[in-house]
Fold this sequence. Notes:
Elements: H1 3-35, E1 49-50, E2 59-60, E3 62-66, H2 71-82, E4 87-91, H3 95-102, E5 112-116, E6 119-123, H4 127-136, E7 140-145, E8 164-169, E9 174-179
Parallel strand pairs: 3-4, 6-7
Antiparallel strand pairs: 1-2, 3-5, 5-6, 7-8, 8-9
Amino acid sequence: MRTNEVGFAKTFTMVHFKKQVLLQGLALCAALGAALPGMAQPLQQGSGQAASAGSGHALPVVEIYKSAECGCCKAWAEHLQKNGFEVILHDVDDVPAARKKLGMPSKYGSCHSAKVGQYLVEGHVPATDIKRLLIERPKAIGLAVPSMPPGSPGMESTLPVPYDTLLITQDGKAKVFAHH
């Protein structure tokens, strides 16, 4: 094979793999959406500061913008609650429009967007990464876990895949914040 053909084959394979992971994530999200409503505990509503989660700092409220039908978003909210955050859920008809309005670049999109203090959080970001962000306070838009990787919080799976949490800088670029 010529170099162009090898490059194309690698690119095609990676795109195909990413689409498969996204489709599996969407299927899991739909299944969780069907299974969780009867099992889920009511999420806290309100505003203000959540209790400290061992860091000595009060945690800001997490406002999540999601589709009403998305079960994995509810599972991620429960993950945050278990880690000391107060959560407010906002069901929206158009998650990409909410993401754009908040200011997160669409190329880092996932199934939900959230606001945590001065930062934005896109996708299934672990609570430990959010807490680290709040302690370090970098000049950034926030954090993102693009797509919906199996094994990330809210996307629990028997076949997890490695993924990165990205720090989205103020110019819209990304750098790895944490490996999982």
